[in-house]
């Protein structure tokens, strides 16, 4: 009977202990989760690097106490997030971490993480302190961490945003367009059609046509004409021809064979381009879908570095028809897109702008 | 309808009343910016020699106003007058008047002219600022707090000049090298850097045992600045006899003098026999000290009157905001001052923070250089001076970007007329 009562008591203690244990395990995590700030990937990498270097010099069987000191411009939430991330990384290396001053454990090694910053970046330093705080047992572990904390390599958030701005539409096919300011201050829109360039003088409102000028061109006949304005030298590429002075109405354009290697490759059949500027030290590439010209299309932005390591699609915008031309602007992270709207039959001009999220 | 008209008119009047007030914050062209400096510059010819680092620095500031650009090696490009200003009147060493260059490639300066008065003592410059007789002057860091308490508008840069002790190899015999090493370490441990900053510099500056300022490297905090006299005594006990050391300082620099005297007190507490000797800033030192002036690194060495000086108190400024480049430049300057023996192998610009720290540690462990304090550049400004941003290391005073607020009480008579 006595043993039965003991068993009963033990059972009740165990029953009480289970929720307590669950509570003890869950509550700290909930608290962390409520206060934790998401760290950029590069910061997590830096924390992992620090933990790896600690693991290389300190035995995991040694209890450690972690002390964090922030002397940088990082705010409290990011400081806590870095501390939590380091604790997790150290636990991943089988370290028994305990907070400073804990009576439960007797820490043998004290780690001090100092969050500092230099002229260029955050500097995170781990010192392994001995008996006295001022005595470092080993050389400090130092990592430089980029200051950008919002979206640098952050998973789940696009790094590039695309925006499209409608410019022009007409039923007649055109291959490219150019919107530019005239010296007098008004704008003009150049529409590159198959055989001619049309110049639309735009009124101040930007939507009214005040006059139209046509400049005939004589490209080689083609069922799939390829032509584009080259904003770098002010010429127009039409197939294998590079034509200058196309805005001089007194005489025909002066055209030469586009003989330089790679020059005509600008007019390749693939509708994609790289726009000027970079984003998080990577180039921005714009591409279109792989369907034919009977299907709706989209323009997608990719970030890439030289080589095959494309980072995938960052952002996309959709159109009611194929994108038949995509040409980069010279000065901005924008491109000129010509879309054949399958619903209306019109050809439409858009400025597509890639904005880097800093 | 009348009420509506009246209300509309009132709104327009109020708007018009507000607009001028807002536009007054916009940059304004015109006026004469009056500058006073303590140094007299005899010539602005880029090839003309200068005497002492203060004169070199002042000449560089003025040359940057009248020459188009400056190469990384410090030489100026273009003809006189191709910069933002051109010379209008010039009394060598006394007064310089510059006019705005209307054709400057980066745009005409906001002010019409600059009047630079040279060789003006600090007390007079401070008084002129108080009396609105000048617009801009440099202020010794130890006087910054005093000036601020007198109501002077103060602008302060990041710490960019290191006050340090350098042991001179040329003056140390080989037999004393070990003793000097121990004494160097003991001396560094004995110095109360916080007291220097708190009392002598009136809390302007950053106590440091690092070769780079904290804002630049981010690792300066790893070099503890706390004095440790017991440890210094322990080190001294390990050498048989503590030799007498002489510390030279620039006798024309009151800050160096007061710091040197303080160091002597600290050293005595630790049992180090050290005496401080004022030496002329110019002239006599034929060795490393004189060559230090030619480093172009802003080195300001207190030139020793010779063999008796074993170490020198020096002020060395960095002229790059890039960490590795700044360290390279400092080491070249210190090596020149010390007469060799300090590694000057340059770090690459892309060196990691860890590499830069390791280099600092490696140099400092040799105890040839004892960093003390990082000092900022301090400027006194008239209230009417707008758009002033303290220059970064190596940059010139951006006086072409400054404009004058004519409505301010500090406007001078010329502007009002």
Strand content of chain A: 35-45%
Quaternary class = heterodimer
Kindly name the structural category of chain A.
Answer: alpha+beta
- Secondary structure category of chain B: alpha+beta
Extended strand count of chain A: 21
Computed over alpha carbons, the radius of gyration of chain A is 32 Å
For the biggest β-sheet of chain B, the strand order reads: 4-5-6-1-7-16-8
- Distance between the amino and carboxyl termini of chain A: 73 Å
Q: What is the terminal separation of chain B in angstroms?
A: 47 Å
Largest sheet geometry of chain B:
7 strands, mixed
Give the radius of gyration of chain B.
25 Å
C-alpha geometry of chain B = elongated
Question: What's the tally of helices of chain B?
Answer: 13
Low-confidence stretches of chain B: 11-25, 282-305, 409-417
The major pleated sheet of chain A works out as: 5 strands, mixed
Which strand order do you get reading across the main beta sheet of chain A?
2-1-3-4-5
Mean pLDDT of chain B: 84
Spell the H/E element sequence of chain A.
HHEHEEEEEEEEEEEEEEEEEEEE
């Amino acid at each position: 009977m006595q043993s039965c009562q003991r068993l009963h008591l033990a059972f009740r203690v165990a029953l009480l202990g289970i929720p307590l244990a669950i509570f003890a395990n869950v509550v700290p995590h909930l608290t962390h989760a409520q206060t934790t700030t998401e760290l950029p990937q590069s910061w997590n990498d830096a924390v992992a690097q620090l933990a790896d270097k600690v693991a290389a010099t300190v035995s995991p069987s040694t209890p450690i106490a972690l002390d964090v000191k922030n002397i940088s411009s990082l705010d409290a939430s990011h400081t806590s997030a870095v501390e939590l991330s380091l604790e997790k990384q150290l636990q991943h290396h089988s370290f028994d971490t305990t907070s400073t001053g804990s009576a439960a454990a007797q820490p043998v090694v004290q780690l001090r993480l100092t969050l500092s910053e230099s002229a260029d970046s955050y500097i995170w330093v781990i010192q392994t302190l001995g008996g006295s705080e001022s005595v470092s047992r080993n050389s400090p572990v130092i990592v430089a961490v980029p200051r950008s904390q919002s979206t640098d390599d952050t998973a789940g958030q696009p790094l590039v945003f695309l925006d499209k701005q409608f410019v022009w539409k007409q039923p007649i096919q055109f291959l490219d367009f150019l919107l530019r300011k005239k010296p007098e201050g008004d704008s003009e829109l150049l529409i590159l059609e198959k055989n001619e360039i049309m110049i639309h003088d735009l009124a101040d409102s930007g939507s009214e046509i005040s006059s139209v000028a046509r400049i005939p061109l004589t490209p080689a006949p083609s069922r799939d004409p390829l032509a584009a304005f080259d904003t770098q030298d002010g010429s127009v590429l039409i197939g294998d021809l590079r034509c200058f002075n196309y805005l001089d109405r007194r005489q025909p354009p002066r055209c030469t064979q586009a003989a330089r290697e790679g020059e005509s490759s600008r007019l390749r059949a693939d509708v994609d381009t790289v726009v000027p500027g970079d984003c998080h030290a990577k180039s921005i590439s714009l591409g279109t879908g792989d369907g034919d010209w009977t299907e709706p299309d989209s323009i997608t932005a990719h970030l890439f570095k030289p080589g095959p390591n494309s980072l995938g699609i960052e952002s996309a915008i959709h159109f009611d028809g194929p994108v038949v031309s995509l040409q980069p602007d010279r000065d901005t992270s924008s491109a000129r897109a010509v879309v054949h709207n399958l619903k209306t039959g019109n050809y439409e001009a858009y400025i597509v702008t890639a904005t880097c999220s800093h | 309808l009348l009420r509506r008209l009246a209300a509309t008119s009132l709104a327009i009047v109020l708007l018009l009343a507000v607009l001028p007030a807002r536009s007054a914050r916009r940059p304004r062209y015109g006026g004469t910016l009056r500058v006073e400096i303590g140094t007299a510059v005899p010539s602005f010819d880029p090839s003309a020699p200068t005497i002492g680092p203060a004169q070199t620095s002042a000449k560089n500031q003025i040359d940057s106003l009248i020459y188009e650009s400056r190469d990384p090696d410090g030489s100026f490009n273009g003809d006189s007058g191709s910069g933002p200003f051109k010379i209008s009147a010039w009394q060598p060493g006394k007064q310089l008047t510059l006019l705005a260059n209307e054709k400057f490639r980066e745009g005409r300066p906001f002010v019409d002219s600059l009047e630079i008065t040279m060789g003006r003592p600090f007390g007079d410059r401070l008084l002129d600022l108080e009396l609105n007789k000048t617009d801009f002057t440099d202020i010794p860091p130890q006087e910054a707090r005093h000036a601020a308490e007198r109501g002077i508008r103060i602008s302060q840069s990041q710490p960019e000049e290191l006050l340090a002790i350098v042991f001179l190899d040329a003056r140390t015999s080989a037999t004393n090298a070990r003793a000097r090493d121990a004494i160097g370490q003991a001396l560094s441990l004995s110095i109360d850097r916080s007291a220097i900053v708190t009392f002598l510099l009136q809390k302007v500056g950053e106590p440091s045992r690092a070769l780079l300022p904290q804002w630049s490297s981010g690792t300066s905090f790893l070099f503890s600045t706390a004095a440790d006299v017991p440890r210094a005594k322990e080190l001294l006990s390990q050498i048989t006899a503590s030799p007498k050391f002489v510390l030279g300082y620039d006798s024309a620099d009151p800050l160096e003098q007061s710091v040197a005297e303080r160091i002597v007190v600290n050293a005595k507490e630790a049992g180090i026999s050290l005496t401080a000797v004022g030496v002329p800033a110019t002239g006599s030192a034929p060795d490393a000290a004189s060559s230090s002036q030619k480093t172009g690194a802003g080195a300001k060495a207190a030139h020793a009157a010779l063999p008796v000086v074993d170490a020198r108190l020096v002020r060395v400024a960095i002229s790059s905001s890039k960490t590795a480049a700044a360290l390279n430049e400092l080491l070249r300057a210190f090596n020149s001052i010390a007469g060799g023996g300090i590694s000057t192998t340059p770090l690459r610009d892309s060196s990691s923070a860890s590499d830069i720290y390791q280099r600092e540690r490696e140099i400092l462990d040799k105890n040839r250089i004892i960093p003390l304090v990082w000092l900022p550049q301090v400027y006194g400004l008239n209230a009417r001076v707008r758009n002033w941003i303290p220059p970064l290391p190596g940059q010139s005073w951006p006086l072409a970007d400054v404009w004058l607020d004519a409505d301010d009480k500090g406007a001078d008579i010329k502007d009002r007329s």
